[in-house]
Design a protein that fits this description.
Elements: E1 4-7, H1 12-23, E2 29-32, H2 33-36, H3 40-50, H4 52-55, H5 61-65, H6 68-72, H7 76-85, E3 94-96, E4 101-103, H8 107-114
Parallel strand pairs: 1-2
Antiparallel strand pairs: 1-3, 3-4
């Protein structure tokens, strides 16, 4: 699998991450959640590798708009349902290839992982 960056095009963090990849000459494929959705198999892979607490963005508007009962009872299966219905709740970006899955943009971590 080639390097893929998953996210939403107009997100400021995504813009920074894509600029970093471009500036560092890293080739990638961009997968837009809003246009292409989130494949359930991929989402399950992220949740298994990183945990729902990492994959689900609890700092964003989408999380804050969820019913309190949903937030309080969140688990992996609920995260799949919620993220499939509301892809903007997934932390951005998710960077993945055959060897790793990273959530969020941290330039130092990306540099260490990609070099």
């Amino acid at each position: 699998m080639e390097l893929t960056i998953f996210g939403i095009k107009n997100c400021d963090t995504m813009k920074k991450a894509i600029k970093w990849l471009d500036d560092n000459g890293v080739g990638y494929h961009f997968h837009d959640y809003k246009k292409e959705g989130v494949p359930e198999q991929r989402l399950r892979q992220w949740l298994e590798a990183l945990g729902w607490e990492t994959v689900i963005n609890k700092r964003g508007t989408t999380w804050r708009k969820l019913d309190d009962a949903v937030k309080e009872s969140m688990n992996t299966e609920k995260a799949i349902t919620v993220a499939t219905e509301n892809p903007s709740i997934i932390k951005r970006p998710i960077l993945q290839n055959d060897h790793f899955i990273l959530a969020g943009f941290k330039a130092d971590e990306w540099k260490d992982t990609l070099n």
